[in-house]
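Changelog-adjacent note: as of this version, every example in the card shows the full chain rather than a window. The one below runs 351 residues end to end.
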Amino acid sequence: MVQAPIADTAQSSSAPALSVGFVLLPRFTLLPFAAFVDCLRLAADEGDRSRQLHCRWRFMTHDGNAALSSCGAEITPCEPFVDPGEFDYLVVIGGVLHDPGVADRAAIDYLRMAASKGVTLVGVCTGVLSLIQAGVMQGRRCCISWYHHGDLASRFRDIEPVADRLYLDDGDRLTCAGGSAAADLAAYLVERHLGRAWARKSLAIMLYDGHRAGEHGQPQPVVFDRISDRLVRRAIRVLEQQLGEPLSVDQLASRVGSSRRALERRFRATLGVGPQRFQRDLRLRYGLWLLHYTERSITEIGEACGFADTAHFSRHVRASFGASPSQLRRDPELVQDRLVDPYFLYVGSIT
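Full-length structure tokens:
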């Protein structure tokens, strides 16, 4: 159980330069939460004394009980939701995706109330989904990790998710991909309210090699370590974000500023296959991962992978892996080559 630092009561009467409320959802991810709050902690006081002087923060859950993270660590003390008007920012930290429960519904209602009061809302990791479910992201782009991009895009088709940056500032809505990028977003807010020196101090003590701007690209899946052709890399990035809505080769070429012939030639030179084949294999690998690691129905998985119907999806799966989706779900050992997780390497053994 992790004990949170207690605010210095002697300083409680003075208004801090930056006040943040954290909404911790069930099974929230510990790294982005810790990175964000530690950046605040180090900017709040001289040295490493941890008094909440320049910055203050409070941890909240729907019932005020300790918050359980996805790794099993608990954060305490927490308190029930308070007047959101007390904060400059309300930061919601999401985690493992699951069906909304009581805690999530209470948090969504709280976020709606905060938005109605003009409080700036920050979604970190899958906390972005709670902002969307609260109905406060209409007509806006939101930043999400490449890992969750496909899931968000398939569940919320009226939202424009982006996975090519660390965080996105859209005025009274900020969204962050999560992970270590949460420290960069926190430093961005610290610099805004306290100045650059305090932001640099926090990041230096946390052993960050400087502040990364929001538009800094997210680290990409392993496939990029094996590809030197920048055009092919750009094309793969586009394909990873279109798993549920496949592009024609002409559309892909237009998106990356190339001709169809040049794109096909460079794909074959780099990967040994054309973009259409690569895209199909990518979608099938995604489907295979969903079969093994989620409880979605086969129909839902086929749709998430951009196949017109279940029969079409099943036919391609059987042709590629030698078994039907239901057989692969029951017996993962039917696939001999190692599964990769999940947006993916190009696996040449798919036929």
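Structural remarks: The first strand starts at residue 2 and ends at 3.
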